[in-house]
Amino acid sequence: MFSLPSPINLPFAAAFAASGGVASHLFYFIHGEHHRAGPTLAFCYLVAVPVLVFVLHQYQCLTLVTSTTWALALAGSYAAGLFGSMCLYRGLFHPLRKFDGPFLAKFSNLYHSWQLVERSDNYRLMAKLHQKYGDFVRTGPSNLSVNTPDAVPLVLGPKSKCSKSPWYDGSRPLVNLHTARDPKVHELRRKDFSKAFSPAALQAYEDRITPISDLFCEQMTTLSGRPVDATSWFKYFAFDVMGELVLGESFHMLEKADNRWVPDLLMEGMSDIAQLQPIPWSTPILSRLPFIRKGPRNFIHFVEDQVRKRQERGSKRPDFMGFLLAAWENSNKTDADYQWLRGDTRLLIVGGSDTTASTLTFVFYYLAKYPDEVRKLREELEPLLDGGKDELDAKGIAKAVHLNGIIHEALRLNPPIPSGYPRVTPAEGITVAGRYIPGGTTVVIPLRALGRSEAAYEKAEEFIPERWYSKPDMIKHRDAFASFGGGHYMCIGRALSLVEMKNLIVKIVRHFDVEFAPGEDGKAFMEGAKDHFIIEVPELKLVFKDRGRGMVYMDTQWGTLWITHRSAEAERKNKVSPDSAILGTGPCRYCASAGTTCSTSARLHRRPFYRVSEEEYQCCMRLLRHFLPDIDLDLKTMKAMITEIEQGAHVASASSTAGSWMPACAESTSAQQTEESEVLQEELGCIILDSRGSYRYVGADSYVRFANAVSQAAVRRAGRGQGTDDSTVMVPLVRSTLPPSTPESSVGTGFSPAWTDTYAGLVHDKESIYLPPRDICHGYLVRFFDEVQSLYWFYSPEQLYTLVDRTYADCESIGLESCSSSWLCSLYSIFAICSAGTRERLDYKDDAKTSADYLAMARSMGLRICDDRSDADTVRALSLLALALHSSCFTVTAYIVTGMAVRMAYSLGLHRNIALRNKDTVSRARIHRLWWTLYLLDHEVAIQLGYPCAVVDHMVGVETPPSCESVLDPGRQTPHGYQAACVALTKLRKNMSYMLYMAPALNPMQKRVIPFSAVTACLGDLQNWLANLPPHLQRWSSAAVAPPHRRAVSVLHLRYYMTLVYVQRPFLLQMTKAALLRGDPLAGNSKHRYQALSDACLEAAKRAVSILKHMRDSALLSSLVLFDTQCIQELVYVFLLAGRLYASRGDVDAAMTAADSLDTCMATLASMEPVGWCEKMLPELVAQVQANNAATDSRAMNSRECGDSSGDHIADLGIFDVLDLDMGAVPTFEGMYSF
Q: What is the C-alpha separation between 638 and 645, in angstroms, rounded?
């Protein structure tokens, strides 16, 4: 029989037990994670005592009392050895021993938890500790709080090697996307969630948020002027939205009080998370005790009940639970799968409600505290909501920078997760701000403390929304903003949360004045917030005062628009019951204000369509009656008048003089325009003689006409005519011909005759289809995205590569006969553009076709797609074909094909955003971006020869919004906002072309004169465009520009400066003529104005040269498109003209500066790949420069013999007219060239 040695020496046994405690610490507890084994270890330790009592009593014949005493002594000795070893190791030998922090915190996490028992304000505790100990604070034996922005990318960034801490296991067996610690498991589960948060789904959700926002505003209207608990009302709103989108049914908290206990239940379920966060082993133990943690248990029961109800009733509209239930149905339906379903539902309920509600509360706390921010926000929103809109569209959201700034500033100062996300450092450790943090350390970045740190933000404690758009220098470290988490674990619902908040904020600010309630200053609100991992905000008393803005409601029963003029006085007179308004049982606002019986439920009138205040309406009517007293202002008459105005007709006013309210500046402007000055201006057009002997028209605003004026003067002075006496007919090139006589001559030799037949016919068989080797195709696509896509967007990378992969896969399996002609036309056009100049490169030797071959193939496919079956892909194909033709010097053909693409887009309604309603959100975004690419391409193809654009903005009524970049990323090579900025600049350029060139020539009443004020207005518009660029697009030379974006940003600024040159180059030409004439026709104030604009033109040209030099040095130039070469060509002519101007004045230094700029242009062009237009233009410009030098030498000789009269030849060109340029004071142009 088993027996123990007798007698046992108690001191020896206690020492042995203590040694066991030390050994278990050194060989077990300090290695790995054991928090999930906490319940088992605690159970074993507790069971060990009665087991020892039994053994000692049974086998040592000790009394029960003695056995119990000995057992407790041995258990205590073990515990003493274990905890003594822990304290000794943590205090003297732990890797974190060099980090400062509270003394007791280094021995146990219980110290940290104890500090949170009373107030649960961990965010405030962390701020105090960092203020006392610095950026690194040891808050536990293996815990470190790091309050420095350098830590954010290392701990939370996408490249971080840190993992989630053991705390995330606290809810087991319940698991969800947030608590998943394994990155692979997290990624797989996130894919299920990503379907629910796709762009198309978000678009549908936004339409369901709006009615709830409207209902919130209705309730605030009813409670107008009375103190309300804003905290609770924002919770009701957020929970109603969450219920609608997550569970498929709103909780209806805004309307009735039945479910208003749910937010309290959520807070009860989260109440002890903050206290238990430092000790992750405690949560599994306490969760097993039936009398503890009732709040979390009750909340889980609520979640289970919601899952069951949603399964039973189903849903007619998509919601988040639909995606989770689909994943559940496709699973094995094990207990683990059910825990995922419960856990993710809990995550959606918490993340979709309370965090949004708390942020909204903080936003309106700051708006009530700083009324000036409300004023700025309204000023920003008014033009974006023009036309009575009550919600921002995608374009408006992008422009509402102050709204975005307010939300970001509130999130910075009061993040929903104030104490941060605990992470564990990798085994090799990390180095943050020069300090090494050992591996296995639990690191937390206190987000609230970091958001208020001067190391991350300037004036960090102040509420300054402008720091997020107009004052970026106030953000010292952009990585410091991590309110939504970061990296792979970033909050997946952040986009939906922002949409939800913006929707409600816009409505409230537009219709209510918000202020603190009497006795409320917000101090108790800010100091009383609790930290339960998510923040719990206390009561905030606010007053929402209805601004009395009328609302136009659509009567859904009769389809009638009703205008309501709401005011507190009207509601008091009609005694609208707050309860009836809340419950939707009383009269609608219109019937209530009119005092009539309402036969339609108020719920039917809830959705507003247009809004106008009564005061605005009355003022507008008074103005109309003042200026049109004899006209009956009914709807039919006003519509007819508007139609006449839009068509350019003049609506006569009975009153010929303005009222006393007219600004005084109007009179002074009129007076200024009586002053007349002469300036030389190009004629409406001229004729170009091409290589085929055909005459082609060239518009006045074409650079060709300006270049001809410069070169013709030099050539005639040197005695070399052009072979024609008609100054209106000119040959575009001296050393070569345009267009090439055949397609193959644009690239060189090697054009296969077989492909000529293909071009001529419409064959679509195996013999007419060719694909280069896959690696060569990849090279072409890389060139396309790097050099072309940065200017013209046609495909997203994933879209193009997917199509190419599918095409090559079909080629290997079933052949290419099934490929659409549109796609093949697009693909061959890309190959035609990007294969130019590759024949001499070894890595492209295996391609059997040349650029000319691909162009002919693209043209053959293009002929097949112009019919009634055309779609957006056809528009894309023709646009790419036009670009390929343009790049290959077929200017007229490119112009014609572009016109076909535009008219095809018209037929599809792309310009009016009409035919896109049956498309998903991503498809709509792609088509929007394609339309604006075509818009840009149409303008650039047309302006080369001064042709009219196919898109005439004021005639076709373009209504297509810009592509939503939150839905469709523009791609790696294109920065956000780039296309919108290019479109805005192009619209300005088109307007300037009409104002400065076309309008004066077409209006015989004005005798081809324009005021100087029109020129300065154009320059002012350009200056405003530059000032309004997003911060990331404002500095082309900054190292902060991402390398993939450098070409696009440089091109954007080059467009700007070339537009400045375009507006002002006639003045430079006039100044040159005046300087070369014996008698200067300019004098006095006129000469001063001409000189200012001429100097500004040269300054813009110099800035453009700086950008080109930067692009050359950074290898950003491209010969695949015309833009780069054309800019250089225009600048060469400008500096040729400037050299002659300065030489005639005897200004040697200025002439040398112009010569240096000219040399830079020529060297830049010579450094480019000699293909396409670059190959054509280089010898041409060399000849022009040589001709200019010869003319200069000849003029110098002639001037010594018979006097200088070279200016006569410029005057004889017949390309100018007399214009009246009235500018008033000479403008200042320094702001237009700021960097």
A: 11
Is the bond preceding 102 in cis, omega lying within 30 degrees of 0? no
Q: What is the DSSP letter of 867?
A: S
* DSSP string of 573-617, one letter each residue: HHT--HHHHHHT-S--HHHHHHT----S-GGGG-SEEEEEEHHHH
- What would the pLDDT profile of 12-37 be if each residue is shown by its tens digit? 788 888 888 888 888 888 887 877 77
pTM above 0.85, yes or no: no
Q: Is the dihedral of CA 816, 821, 826, 828 positive or negative?
A: positive
Q: For 1009-1048, give the DSSP string.
A: ---HHHHHHHHHHHHHHHHTS-GGGS-TT-TTS-GGGHHH
State the distance between the two ends of the chain, measured CA to CA, in whole angstroms: 95
What is the spatial distance between Cα 673 and Cα 692, in angstroms, rounded to a whole number? Answer: 47
Give CA–CA dist 926/979, Å, rounded: 13
Give 666-682 pLDDT, tens digit per residue.
Answer: 333 333 333 333 333 34
> Tens digits of per-residue pLDDT, 993-1051?
877 777 666 665 555 566 777 788 888 888 888 888 888 888 877 666 888 888 888 88
Comparing 579-588, 641-650, 654-663, 1104-1113, the range with the smallest average pLDDT is 654-663
**What gap in Å lies between CA 596 and CA 586, rounded to an integer?**
12
Cβ neighbours of 953 (radius 10 Å): 15
Q: 3-class SS at 444?
A: strand
CA–CA separation, 1033 and 1194 (whole Å): 47
The H or E element that residue 38 is part of is helix 38-59
Q: CB–CB of 540/229 below 8 Å?
A: yes
Distances (CA, A) of 1181 to 90, 199, 1097, 1132: 78, 50, 21, 8
**In this structure, what token pair is assigned to residue 876?**
């894309």
Of 1052, 1039, 882, give the one whose Cα is nearest residue 974. Answer: 1052
Q: Write out the two tokens for 533.
A: 């991992």
The two tokens of residue 687 are 């004729």
Q: Is 491 annotated among the ligand-binding residues?
A: yes
